Amino acid sequence: MKKIIASLLITSALAFGIAGCTGNNNGGTVTVGITQEPSVFDPHTVVAAGDKEIIFNVFEGLYKFDQTGTLNPCLATDVEISDDSTVYTFTLREGVTFHNGNEMTADDVAYSLKRAAGLLDGQEAALVSELDSIESVDITDGRIKVTLESPNSELLSFFTVAIIPDEVEDIGATPIGTGPFKFDSYTIGQDVTLVKNENYWIPELPYIDKAVFKITADMDAGLIELQNGTIDIYPYLTADRADQLDPNAFTILRKGSNMVQIFALNNAVEPLNDLRVREAINYAVNRDDIISVTMDGAGDPLTTGMSPAMGDYYDSSLDGTYTQDINKAKALLSEAGYADGFDLEITVPSNYLVHVNTAVELKSELSAVGINCIIKQVDWATWLSDTYTGRNYESTVIALTSNYAPYDVLSRYKSDSNGNFINYNNARVDELLTQIPLETDDATKVSMYHEILGLLLDDAASCYIQDPANIVAVSNKITGYDVYPMYVQDLSRVKFV
Questions:
Q1: Rounded CA separation 131/119 (Å)
Q2: Which of 13, 286, 307, 367 has its CA 20 to 30 A from that of 404?
Q3: Could you tell me if 490 and 461 lie in one domain?
């Protein structure tokens, strides 16, 4: 048996703001500036990164990522993985209670994993697609034994899936977890309020009494609230907005976000179903100019569907493959039968200024090759339902988020993945994504990931633009803030100076 044992490292992170400072090291209220209206509080069905960053504080899994991207035990203390990677056996942490006061038991864990994997009576499919390979979940001597249909050496990072009490009928309506904060209230268009979990299994945490995620109309509205003191920390600012803040009142943190900003091209609609057209778009775009305009240069240009933050799994040899070449773009369009160009609708969520500004710059650049872009701004709920889920769009601009795990980054490109909203289809990519979980040699897996990245490039699956820097304004009234290489906000160690 292969045994993995590690200590739990729970650290503070990503994006929160503080109001009502008390001057004490403990207590007080943290106010988080967000631009996205929350939509789902069920941790097994949540899709939007903006929802996940809130409920990260409410729910926990058997394992949990820390601010370095390291995966550590959480509600489990260790895991044994069989040599063939078909059986994962977890030892559960004792002394953990849910927010309703009930003790977490093996039955709760088994129920949660079965629910996520689609194994409960009446379920037709997994709620968490990455767990659909689970064949059974059993309790053996108080431990949780998870048996898979086939070997999967990449599955551990998905056991961050939330553990919930089995007696709660509608977890979305009554979000009850084991995290450092308890769900208190949600007022549409205003805020989500979390309160301190007095019985958290790490006794000294959290330090603050309340966390309020305040919904702002856009980044500029959030900037005003920062300056007025009603929000003290705000994430994902553009550099020019951050520069407007008083350096004596705020610390500005900048770090790669491990996100992939994508000019997503729907491979199933004309003329984007033509490889030559998608290639032409890639050659027409100047990524450095877009980063300069939208992020004041604070971003890493991308050529394919992964950020350099993923280390060895990223293939730097692909960098710069698509440098702007207007003549080549025009030639490709002419070859595809679009010498006079065509109209292209870009649907973009209006609450994300960076994406809106990117669409505006794309419109300018693509006009040079005869592509006339029509920008359609929609609210977040509409984008999520019609564009992402319904795939009823031509092109869009969005940032893709993931766990700090290469399989989570690239599994969306499997042809039958729910996350494959660009309708990408490549049989070799499907084959590789099926083979990778069966492979145990890391060097071989790195090679396979590189092959996928190369295929996404060869197919011009979409136009990848940048890993935008996460620029966060942090009030100097607080300490304990850290930035994660993923889209979460960990408030557990934040406290007043």
A1: 10
A2: 286
A3: no
423 part of a folded domain? yes
CA distance 365 to 134: 47
Together in a domain, 462 and 318 = yes
CB under 8 Å, gap of 24 or more: what pairs does 299-302 form? 299/261, 299/466, 299/467, 299/468, 299/469, 300/256, 300/466, 300/467, 300/469, 301/465, 301/466, 302/260, 302/261, 302/464, 302/465, 302/466, 302/467
3-state SS class at 473: strand
Peptide bond into 271 cis (omega under 30): yes
Taking the C-alpha atoms of residue 270 and residue 236, their distance in angstroms, rounded to an integer, is 34
CA triple 456-462-465, angle to 5 deg: 100
pLDDT of residue 291 exceeding 80 = yes
Q: Where are the beta strands (DSSP E) in 157-314?
A: 181-187, 191-196, 210-215, 233-234, 250-256, 260-265, 299-301
Query: CA-to-CA distance for 495 and 18, rounded, in angstroms?
Result: 9
- Coil/strand/helix, residue 383: helix
Residue whose tokens read 């939007």: 48
- C-alpha span between 322 and 324 (Å, rounded): 6
Going by C-alpha positions, the residue among 75, 67, 66, 90 that lies closest to residue 155 is 90
Question: CB-based burial of residue 104 (10 Å sphere; 0-12 exposed, 13-18 middle, 19+ buried)?
Answer: buried
Chain center to CA of 290: 22
Does residue 395 fall inside a structural domain?
yes
Q: Is the pLDDT of residue 24 over 50?
A: no
What digits encode the pLDDT tens for the residues 307-322? 998 989 999 999 999 9
CATH code of the domain containing 80: 3.90.76.10
CB neighbours of residue 203 within 10 Å:
8
d(CA 261, CA 353): 13
Non-local CB neighbours of 206 within 8 Å, separated by 6+ positions: 180, 181, 196, 197, 200, 491, 492, 493, 494
What pTM was computed for the model?
A: 0.84
Q: Considering only CA atoms, which of 88, 77, 43, 63 is closest in space to residue 160? A: 63
Give strand ranges (E) for 197-248: 210-215, 233-234
Gap between the Cα atoms of 21 and 230, Å rounded = 11
- The token duo for 175 is 């979000």
Q: Name the nearest CA neighbour of 320 among 283, 294, 291, 289.
A: 283
Q: Evaluate the CA torsion angle 148, 149, 152, 154 in order and state its sign.
A: negative
The CA radius of gyration of the chain, in Å to the nearest whole number, is 23
**Cα 282 from Cα 265, distance rounded (Å):** 11
In sequence order, what E strands does 222-321 have?
Answer: 233-234, 250-256, 260-265, 299-301
What's the CA gap between 236 and 219, in Å, rounded? 9
The per-residue pLDDT for range 439-455, each reduced to its tens digit, is: 988 999 999 999 999 99
Reported as type and span, the H/E element at residue 76 is strand 76-81
Is 26 strand, coil or helix? coil
Count up the domains in the chain and report the number.
Answer: 2
